[in-house]
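Dear support,

Our group has been running a series of protein-ligand predictions, and this particular one with tryptophan is the one our PI (initials K.S.) wants archived with full inputs and outputs. We had some confusion internally about which version of the output was final, so please treat the block below as the authoritative record. The input we submitted was:
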Amino acid sequence: MSTDKVSVHGGWASRWVFILAATGSAVGLGSIWKFPYMVGVYGGGAFVLVFLACIALIGVPVMLAETLIGRRARQSPANALKALALEAGHSGKWSWGAFAGMITALLILSFYSVVGGWSLDYIIDMGRGDFQGVAADQVGAYFGGVIADPWRLTLWHTIFMLLSAVVIAKGVVAGLERSLRIMMPLLFVMMVILLGYSLTTGHFMEGVHFMFDFHPDKLLDGLLPAMGHAFFSLSVGVGSIMIYGAYMPKNSSISGTIVGVALLDTFVSLLAGLALFPIVFAAGLNPSEGPGLMFVSLPFAFGNVAFGQLMGVVFFILVAIAAWSSAISLLEPMVAYLVERTKIRRGWVTFWLAFTCWFVGLGTVFSFNIWQQAKFFVNDGAGFHLYQWGAASGLDFFGVIDFFTSRIMLPLGGLCFVVFAGWVMGRDAVRDELSIRSPFLFALTLFLMRYVAPIGILVVFAAQLWK
Ligand code: TRP
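Confirmed final output from the archive:
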């Protein structure tokens, strides 16, 4: 197969634009919203350590695998796996793994858009001055009030989904570059300012200890969640990075680029944690608060400093943009696939897929209010129930989608992609795409993709089952 062709969907102008787009995909609610609240729920240091190990040993190899598969095939994930498998004399059924990934991406987008909507809502609330001089418990009550209102959540969820769909409908390559070029560096600056604030709270070291003190007893509980979140945070396991790889120019180095994107993403996550937890402790909030953690701690900080109102508005705009550039990469794989496989126009494909995700997302909207009592997979003293209204334990609708996607489908999708790149594509094809000059580094990369990452994924699954 010739490797210097361009995808039918267009291509990035340069390696630099790929870096922007991939960073835009990776850095998002996963780093700023989800990472801190999961660190809180899973008890701090042990989770962070496993997360970092999973990024380095599993996430980066999977990300490399996705990028090189995408760039070699220059097609949507399912078609890419099929074409490359047939080329290497293997079964075209490999495409099913990528197909499952593309569906997973849509399921993730369904709740991602709801939380993206919370950030949009908070831009307005901040701007109105709702948080000026508030006490910590008032912020909690405020957030409770927001999520208790299904109409309000649905409105912002709808707006967020529309904003993402507009860019996709026009084509990712055209739409993303201009906005990200300015916004990503700004987000960075804003996180550093927040970090500066958290240094002044007098609780900074408490936050550092919470994040980095290692408690071995908490290790097992956080293992699978941390691995799942490593995938989530890097945008790997569903084909997001693969489709962006398909738009990448041939003459740019994959490995250096990918390692850079992974480092940036991890850095933003750690920055978010270090900025947030000191504020959480200073305000006397509970670190295991759950999905609301960012939305109760940061407004408290913004509400009680000079220029906080303005900074708060800027901050939530940046979060919304980071979320938006990630949402786009969740929708793109399936859109590209349907554009390749059908004669339907890109705009219509986008509209129907976004509508479907929006509809499924209503389940997440209702999880926080009218369906709060609807619990799935209930396992209490009285035995196991698939579904029970009003049970004390179990997962709500959002919990089910989150569990199924992050803990099960992302690692499985990642497994499929690294095994494919490591074992199916053939050494020469991988060498040609990666173009790593040093034989040692190439051998190391191949070793990570062939053995370390797949075995690591299986070990974490096994540990979860037997714990
Ligand atoms: N990585 C993004 C974030 O952290 C979310 C995301 C975008 C994603 N594309 C993905 C997660 C693909 C899993 C798979 O916010």
